[in-house]
Amino acid sequence: MNLEEARENLIEKLKSYCVENNTSESQVTAFFNRMEIQAMADGFAMLTFENEFIKNWIETHYISDIKRALNELYGGDWMLQFEVDNTSMSANAEKKEKPTQNAAPETERQQETQETPKTEDKTATENQSNKQEGITPKAPTEAKAESTSSHNDEPAVPESESRKLTSRRGANGETKLTFDNFVTGASNRMAYSMAIEVADKPSNSALNPLFIYGRSGVGKTHLLCAITNYIKEQYPTLKVRYIDAMEMVNEYGNAAINKSFQSFEDSFRELDVLLIDDIQALRGKQQTLDILFRIFNELIPKGKQFVFSADRAPKNIDLDERYVSRFNSGATIDVHPPDAETKRNIAKSFLLECQEEEDFKLELPDDVLDYIAENSSSNVRELKSAVTNVVFALKIDPQHTITKQQVKQMLSNHFASDTSNKVTMDIIKDAVCSFYDVSEKELTGPGRSKKIKNPRNVAIYLSREMIDSTFAAIGDAFNRSHSTIMHSYEVFQKQVNEDRSLHEEVEAIREKIRVQ
């Protein structure tokens, strides 16, 4: 049996299952392109993979589909053996598509001097332009810094010298957001792997567009900036740009005032790679959306790469279906909140980064690191803020030491998890209304349409979960009887446990409440 032909047949058969499995063909391609069939006969197949992560992922998520596919292709029951074969890496690399011809070889290095992309200061003129899109002028913001650290796990794809970017500091002291200082864990390995796939093969990746979503502070911006920085260093002839969605809205408003629409659009059309952060901010910004998708439709057929991030899945952003379908046309992956172990690793790594600025050794006892990891929320910014406070305390202490008790006292009002008693039903109502774009009058009124019913159930559920209100008290707040509230809560609780998309919505609102 021709093993390469069998490999191709297997991949095609697995792609045919994507619709029923609610997965994308691009994800199948991305993972199974790193698989080889080493042996295959009499109902036995040995499959080898480039690294342990890909092997474990496929073994966990695809083993039944592989057996089904082999049965449909060749008949019989199949026994599978999965192994890691590091020697296949170089051979596989030659088979994969190479970067576009205008991409520089990996041996050509360019000294990285540009700053991590960040939102620039906006002038009064731009703030005036915001009114055309119905937005409130915003204050200048600095580059976002999310999950940062050195690797503690094996990279999702083969590591080479060309990929090892060091954590350099820009002129303003900001840490560069790279793949090397991104901590991987169970919550983000898939997104990390896909980000490297895109960075390795700009304009040739099957993951186009790549859509990364998850609640605030889980590392989405870090991944987008890591892709940007990697491509700028490895492929200096490619034109790549990272931009926040609201910055794009502001630039469009400026173009409207200056009557420079063509120049605005052309600045994006000339790009080889475009990364847009917090894409949910374009909801309601129709003119900017229309321009973005004209550019998208023009550049995608030319092989130009797009990467988007958002705080929720595309279907939950409340955009026109044609936009949602384009967001979903490549690969869509969610980043889950980090677990305690990953947060501990992030804290340790950030401590090492802070060490670069000090003339003494920064050390924290294990029980202090455990306390910070266990009590911080899923938002990595809160975690890093806590570490920053502790580092400052270490600096001013003559012995440069600190105890867990001192840290607990210092951070007693710092963690969002410590302020749950401050959450009220009014706060929950406001967060739900903001998320679903409904009014409080609608939320507590008699309306029973789907547009109102789902937000109301979310608010009732969170009122019970976050502040442990009685059903009677919740009923008073929502103008409903005790029994009605109890029934709504029980039904919705089951729905949240069974519907992953709904669960993501609820968790996004819960996080919004906890960090405000």
What does this structure look like?
- 51% of the residues lie in helices and 8% in strands.
- By secondary structure, the chain is α/β, with parallel strands linked by helices.
- Strand 1 (35-41) and strand 2 form a beta hairpin.
- Helix 1 (3-15) crosses helix 5 (63-74) and helix 7 crosses helix 10.
- It starts with a helix and ends with a helix.
From the spread of the alpha carbons, the general shape counts as globular
What class, by secondary structure content? alpha/beta
Number of beta-strand segments: 8
Identify low-pLDDT runs.
Answer: 88-175, 417-421
Major sheet: arrangement of strands: 5-6-7-4-8
Straight-line distance between termini:
61 Å
State the assembly state of the protein chains.
Answer: single chain
Number of helices: 23
Rounded to an integer, what's the Rg over CA atoms?
A: 25 Å
The level of helicity is 40-55%
Give average pLDDT, whole number. 76
Give the percentage of residues in beta strands.
Answer: 5-15%
Biggest beta-sheet profile: 5 strands, parallel
